Amino acid sequence: MVPLYYIISAVLIGWHELLSAIGLDPAGGLSWALSIIGLTLVIRAALIPLFVKQIKSSRNMQLLQPKVKELQKKYGHDRQKLAEETMKLYKEAGTNPFASCLPILLQMPIFFALFRLLDQAARSGKAHGFLDAKRADQFGQSEVFGAIPLADSFWGARTWGPEPHGVVMIVALVLVLAMTATTFTTQRQLMAKNMPAEAMSGPYAQQQKMLLYILPVAFGLGGVAFPIGVLLYWTTSNLWTMGQQFYVIRNNPAPGTPAFKAKQERDRAKAAKHGHPAAEAEVVTEAPANERRPAARQQPKRQTRSQRKSKPGAGGTARGASNDTTNEGDSK
Q1: Distance between CA atoms of residues 230 and 142, nearest Å
Q2: Which of 53, 106, 129, 223 is deepest in the core (most CB within 10 A)?
Q3: Whole-model pTM?
Q4: 142-201, pLDDT tens digit by residue?
Q5: CA separation (Å) from 116 to 142, 152, 220, 226?
Q6: Three-state helix/strand/coil letters over 187-239
Q7: pLDDT, tens digit (0-9, with 9 covering 90-100), for 100-141
């Protein structure tokens, strides 16, 4: 965790210094809360290449579903053979069924590093990375609007506990629900709009359906123990994911999906609005044009000399050659 402490604290302090320079109270909770949001944006921007890889892998998985179904029919009686052939198919296609989890898996160490950094700063003012003891104590004791400690959690502020804090419970509960809802909505958005109908069955679809419900429940149950600062990080990250995914699905959807059909409708409407019927016709006739692709040209068969002479054109040539021979004989 030590390298992560340095990375997280460097970005966090950088944002904190920037926000303090524009007039926010360095010891105030608002400057630290906005620094956490800034940290989230930097991390998510750094993960954009992985997000692109995730989208490509998801599309490849969708395109492979017909072949996966064929393997299921062929090796349905042998689960081990089916698993081997399926993984072989994924390897040949250069895709991975777990690539869709990469952004989440890579964020989890950062998530727990921020959790420990904030928790230990609040409990003992312990320094981590570039966050020295003074800043650590300031970070751990900071309160948004002077009433909501960033280091407190729903469970820690429970009204039946030693230090009840109803306001913290309400804010933490709102953030837990927002974190759960955005996690569910993001996964649901991908399945409902950017997956073709034939890809909604099979092992990949079952995996996606499991993640659709397991992840929100897991984060919801664990969220009651997360500090408000960590909840703020994860909710901001989910909102980034939703916006990023919405943009990609809307502008570059996978073929054969509801999002792809919606984009075709928008393109036709846009073409009609600007008076370009040709563009509209191109969208409509693009698929049939590909279906009418001519077959591969066949090579002519080898023929004997007698077969070539038996052709009409060849016959005329042969007769001409015969007449020339007769005339030559007469002249002799």
Answers
A1: 14
A2: 223
A3: 0.69
A4: 888 888 888 888 888 776 666 777 888 899 999 999 988 888 888 777 776 766 665 565
A5: 16, 13, 19, 10
A6: HHHHHHHCCCHHHHCCHHHHHHHHHHHHHHHHHHHHHCCCEHHHHHHHHHHHH
A7: 666 677 778 888 888 888 888 887 788 888 988 888 888 888
